[in-house]
Amino acid sequence: MAPPAADPLLGQQIEGYRIIRSVGHGGMGVIYEAVHPGIGQRAAVKVLFPSFSRDEDAVSRFVAEARAASRVQHPGLVKIFNHGRIPDGTAYIMMEFLSGESLQARLLRLRQTAQRMPLPEVVRIAGQVASALDAVHREGIVHRDLKPANLLSFADAEASGGERIKVVDFGIAKFLSGSTADVDRTTVGKFLGTALYASPEQCQMTGQVGAKADVYSLGVILYEMLAGQPPFVAEHPGAVIAMHLSSKPRSLWDVSWSVPTPLCLLVHQMLHKEPERRPSMKQIGDRLAELRLDAAEWPYRLWRHKSRVAAVAGGALLALALLGTIAGRISAVRARATPAGRAESERPLHASHVALPGPQSAVRNETGLGTATSPDTISVPAAQGRNPTVSGLSALPRGTQTPARIKEKRAAAKTGMLSRRPDAPSAAASAASSPEPVASPIPKIGSGGNAPPSEPPGPQPPAAQPPAKPKPKQDNDDDLAFH
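RESULT FIELD:
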């Protein structure tokens, strides 16, 4: 394989500067580094390819770039020293030499490490670019090829953050007025720019491109710095152009929730399809200046934003839980208030029995004859069609024992309405000298009718001796058993 041919321009001198090496190239030419032998000053020399140097249209654009860049004096623009042709007819531009990194290289490095550019750095870079382009637009010039590769950064102690961003490559710049209007007539029907960063009016290729085209391109760059990729990406440039014309970019809030709301709104305004609805570069610079904060303040603001989001979310969940509880209570009250609910709560206990303490004998109550179930309890069947009552007391609901009901039953027992258990002491049986027990009839149950005794009472034999003084009656609530 033959070695590559030596560059014929290496070692040549242009206006006293000797070309020492190639530092980059584009679609139309090559950029060289040159050094002045006497003073050691460095300069950048941009040279057109020989094929373009023979094209008058290309040469006219090349000269227009030199005029556009030298016409505006701004620290964010490259200084132009001179332009002309070398002896072989090749056109060149001599400008200040910048030793730094392009924004494209920085974004690529961050993307490879899955990182995002810090927000203060994004705001600072965009603010410097907006300031430079505002000066360009005031001179009636449109860049038309704004992209990360044409933004160079280098160290500058006087700049904010110690870094300066400069806009380069005005090769396809458009003059909105002046003698170069005939140059722009050749752009009708041709696409000029880079598809990823071109505005919709550039994609339409009508030649009606104004300063708002640079606003759209800067919006795409801002979106890429915040989201990590441009808003529209496709394998073919034609598909990207179609997306610029008709598709809506994905919201920055969906891509990165940490983007401040004012910055997010500004980016989407810059990406509007209609040029009239986009802000000017002056307005963009002012709004970015308001957003420019010290790097130490951003983490605090992000933490405060997260805290507010968490507080709002917790409050919403608590409110939903409270509303659910209130709705459940209201539903329960309404259910009890309906006729069906009242009927259910007053339904008779038709399938249950009321257990009362008593001897193993049959007793009679309001509803009929009960049957003895055990020596200690008597089971009284519930009345058909109504709630059972015992001595005028309503039966407790199934499985419910409340202190009020228990107290009511104990009070009824004390008044003699309920019978005691057989082994409980009584006044008649407490006489110590009584030789024979005295049979006592079963007490009345209920308000109507007396229950017949289980055995006919026999004659009472006379006492053999005067009865002893009866002991005082002691009520024992524990002798009452409710089952």
